[in-house]
Amino acid sequence: MAESSECFNIGSLVSCKTCFNEDLQGEVLAFDPNVKLLTLKSAASSGRTSLCDIRMVNLSYVSQVTVIREAAASPLPSLPSLNLDKLNSRAKRSIEAKQRLIQALQSGVTPDGQKLFLTICKTIEEVTWMGPNILVMSQVIITPPYLPENVREHKDSKDSNMKTLNYIKKIVDKFHKDQQSVSLNNGTNVAPVVAEVQPVSQ
């Protein structure tokens, strides 16, 4: 067994005794000499072989470190290149979604309207606010109170597409049915059960 040094190679097996007299042992995943932080990987305390425990050990609170098995120093693996265009596109979409939500709040849109808007955004990207109205694909407009009967073709739309209109109506209808189901499951808006009693003939 070799005594600890100022640097630990990735993959080395290390044993540490903490100031609480606790023995920790594991494989070195990372080491930051500037803050004396050692990251160790060991078998899962749950006993599941598909999992492992990861511990971050501050060496300032360790009384003894022993290197049980030294791993050969090797260059770190190269990281995969990032698709910057994809990341920028995702960031732009996220910013646009937040801006649309801010527009909705400023327009005094009801919580139901905001939820419906977010529901439509999950399946269709081209969704915007026109004041308190939801505009979908520049073809369909949904006006408050955002019920299926409030879904109609947008008058400024260049294309008339009944298929899109009917599809949006189905989304709105399903949204309201799901909302009612959630309300019933939570015990709210439940109509009282009234039993009709018929007179019994003697």
Describe this structure in words.
The chain has 202 residues and is α+β, with helices and mostly antiparallel strands. It has 2 domains: 2-69, SH3 type barrels (Roll); 90-184, no CATH class. Helix content is 29%, strand content 27%. The protein contains 3 helices and 10 strands; from the N terminus they run E-E-E-E-E-E-H-H-E-E-E-E-H. The chain has helices spanning 84-106, 111-121, 162-185; strands at residues 2-3, 13-18, 23-32, 37-43, 52-58, 62-69, 127-130, 133-136, 140-142, 151-153. Strands 1-6-2-3-4-5 form a 6-stranded antiparallel beta sheet, with no helix packed on it. A 4-stranded antiparallel beta sheet has the order 7-8-9-10. Residues 80-180 form the AD domain. It comes from Halocaridina rubra. This is Protein with role in RNA processing.
Layout of helices and strands, plus pairs?
Blueprint: E1 2-3, E2 13-18, E3 23-32, E4 37-43, E5 52-58, E6 62-69, H1 84-106, H2 111-121, E7 127-130, E8 133-136, E9 140-142, E10 151-153, H3 162-185
Antiparallel strand pairs: 1-6, 2-3, 2-6, 3-4, 4-5, 7-8, 8-9, 9-10
Keywords:
four-stranded antiparallel beta sheet, alpha+beta, single chain, six-stranded antiparallel beta sheet, 202 residues, 2 domains
Helix content: 25-40%
Number of strands: 10
Query: Which structural class should the secondary elements be placed in?
Result: alpha+beta
List the uncertain runs.
Answer: 1-5, 189-198
Order of helices and strands: EEEEEEHHEEEEH
Total of helices: 3
Quaternary status? single chain
What number of structural domains do the residues give? Answer: 2
Spatial order of the strands in the main sheet?
1-6-2-3-4-5
Q: Distance between termini? A: 99 Å
Mean pLDDT: 81
- Supply Rg: 31 Å
Determine the strand fraction and express it as a percent band: 25-35%
Shape: elongated
**Major β-sheet annotation:** 6 strands, antiparallel
